[in-house]
Amino acid sequence: MSRQPSPLDFPQSPLSRAFEQPLFLGLFLPVQSGGWSPSALPRSTTWTFDYNRQLTLRAEELGFDLVFALAEWLGKGGYGGDIRYHDESLDAFITQAALASVTSRILLISTLHVLYGPWHPLHLAKFGATLDHISKGRWGLNLVTGHRHREHRRFGQAPIEHDQRYRQADEFIRVVQELWHSPDNVDFSGDHYKLEEAYVSVKPSFGRPVLVNATGSPAGIDFAARHSDIVFTTSPGSAEIENALEKLPEHLQRTKHAARGYGRQVRTLINPLVICRDSDAEAWEVHAAITAAGDPGALEGHAREASDAHAWRGHQPAERYVGGNIQLVGSPETVVRDIIRLKEAGIDGLQLSFFDFAPDLEQFGERVLPLLRQAGLRR
Predict the structure, then answer these.
(1) What integer pLDDT is reported at residue 52 of this predicted model?
(2) CATH match of 7-374 with 3.20.20.30
(3) Cys bridge to 24: 65, 70, 268, 304, which one at CB 3.0-4.6 A?
(4) Residue 236 has what pLDDT?
(5) How many CB atoms lie within 10 A of CB 90?
(6) How far apart (Å, rounded) are the C-alpha atoms in residues 211 and 206?
(7) How far is it, in rounded angstroms, from Cα 68 to Cα 66?
(8) What value, to the nearest 5°, has the Cα angle with vertex 47 and ends 15 and 65?
(9) Which residues are registered as beta bridge partners of 230?
(10) Rounded-to-integer distance, Cα 152 and Cα 238, Å
(11) In which residue ranges of the chain is pLDDT below 50?
(12) Which residues contact 131 (CB under 8 A, 6 or more apart)?
């Protein structure tokens, strides 16, 4: 199959406009109960659609470039613990579809396990093209292959070996892109998918929707280098900022070098959880309170969901009480200082999460965004 056009081939595409920012900004929506922090400390954050719609509209008003939502397939009680962490959740694909009709500028990224259950490339090509049409080119796919063995079994499937998952996903997305691009019927016979006289209309507005991949393994990085516009990365070290900054540059260069090997460029995105208060001391007091109220049963439940993912191997269990790929804790000046350091390390964008989303997002918009503009990281 020939190279397919990307949204970045179109200067007026929503993705091209987002990438005009020196540092693009996203919000990692809390579509699951407990958000990103398995802590019983009181907060207003909730998983409901109305709450996430309000967050998305506020992020759009503040100039954020995208919102992101995760996908998980857990049993009753979620990860468990006293708080029943992630027991309730919205589907990312449907949530972003609904948000497409109430937003006008912000990119909407859905996470989807394309290898689970009955998904077929023709399904996704049609659904994705429809969402692209509704959103005017603002919908994107975070394609994941499923790293948790118990999730595969919940769909009646045996777990698929790590690298084999990426080989199957490669065939899947190549077929999807051919359907998005081809002006004629598509015939295809591969190792995993077969199509005869398959066709999709409408066609995407800007070549194809935005493609994202969250990965840290060699096979995943190679997949992202061939297909993705954005690589959602994790610190190979811990969530602690100094450790992350020590190990991120080499990891990010490896990812970008892999893309250059295919004649492409990718942007890297990381998920900090931000705890920002008037002073460093006050922010660390909040961090300590969240950790002290952490639910060990939820962490134990998380550990039981056996995974062969590479991305989180350097993270410490206790860091998960607060959450985030990395943690930015301090005054507005300290948070901006660390964001600048992440940019210098090679990060192109931030997918922000918070402990208490609505008030913390307001505080970020009021106190941190102006400093990012002064630093030349936002326009």
Answers:
(1) 98
(2) yes
(3) 65
(4) 84
(5) 20
(6) 12
(7) 7
(8) 15
(9) 212, 267
(10) 28
(11) none
(12) 96, 97, 100, 139, 209
